[in-house]
Amino acid sequence: MNKQNLLLLLIIGFLATACSGEAEQTETTAEDIVKTVNVTTKSVEPSTFSSYVRVIGNVATPNDILISAEVSGRVISYKVKEGDKIRKGETIVKIDDSKLKQEKARLEAMTAQAKDTYERLKKVYEEDGIGSEVDYLNAKYAYEQSNSALESIKVDLANTSITAPFNATVETKMVEAGEIVNPGTPVVRLIGSDEFIISAGVPARYSDAIGTGDDVLFWFDTQASDTLQGTIRYAGSSINPTNRTFRVEVELPKKGHSYKVDMIANLLLKTNEQTDVLVISEEYVYSKGGEYVVYVLSEDESGDPVAQKRVVNLGLSYKTNVIIESGLEAGDQLITLGSAFLDDGMRVTPKEATGTLAAN
After folding, report:
1. Burial 311-348, CB ≥16 within 10 A → b, else e
2. Tens digits of per-residue pLDDT, 15-47?
3. Which of 178, 184, 263, 287 satisfies CB 3.0 to 4.6 Å to 59 for a cystine?
4. Threshold 0.70, pTM exceeds
5. Distance between CA atoms of residues 338 and 296, nearest Å
6. For the stretch 226-253, what's the b/e string if a residue is b when 16 or more beta carbons lie within 10 angstroms of its beta carbon?
7. CATH class of the 33-49+275-357 domain in this structure
8. CATH topology of domain 53-62+193-271
9. What is the C-alpha to C-alpha distance for residues 279 and 262, in angstroms, rounded to an integer?
């Protein structure tokens, strides 16, 4: 073999060796990429789980009433305007009382005459034995009837001035000055200015979870950033058959806020609270083969980090949080980011320091 052939064989052998090593390295690298996943983990620790229901309510006031006339007559004048704030006992409307005054004068005269007759007959009957008992009793009853009619007229006269039964705002005048009203005719709508509540319907399925005294968060669509805290002061004992809800009331603070009847309010009511339970995000729970599984950080026989599949039983959930009834223990390192790409026993590479898994 000449030198040229020997040199050619050496070159071919070197190239073959180099290509073989590169292929082996490429194969190993590809194998590592397939079997290793970068992940992050968080420590599972006991925490408190709370769930809520959001309902829509309306602002109302127990003192939202229509005041009606109690006597017949012509409306002389309104003493207030719509929108005025008035105090308890303040006059709102005056009804013409001229006829009632005349009737009062007539009854006063009749009552005085009946009283005089009664007292005279009483004296002669009891002291002198003159007259009959029937005449004496008839005079007594006539006086009492006349006096009762007089007192009734006095009440009617007082009712010609319609007054506010509580501190309120004049919302609507139902009649105008000059109109004739009769007993029962609505005259004015008043809205109490001292007490406002939120009234809302809660689905019947929460009847055992929500009751009087429970705390509640609420806010208004016009004040989205102003979240207030209150207490349920009343929870209904019956279910509305139309919408299957029961009524709750939350008292609003008396000062510092401006409320209007029928404002829309959002209420957040707590439906459940459990302490010392394991809570994780539902995004790390997967359904596989009819079971729910999560992945935790473990080690293989060589001490390398691997993903270990755990079958879990789920409890109550709220938003993205769910209670793990079994399958996890406190201190387990739950694989979070990267868990969607895992299988049981797959090699993993933790990429950040572990922390404590806290419920949102």
Report:
1. ebeeebebeebbbbeebbeeebbbbbbbbeebeeebeb
2. 555 444 444 444 445 444 446 899 999 999 999
3. 263
4. no
5. 11
6. eebebebeebeeebeeeeebbbbbbebe
7. mainly beta
8. Elongation Factor Tu (Ef-tu); domain 3 (2.40.30)
9. 39
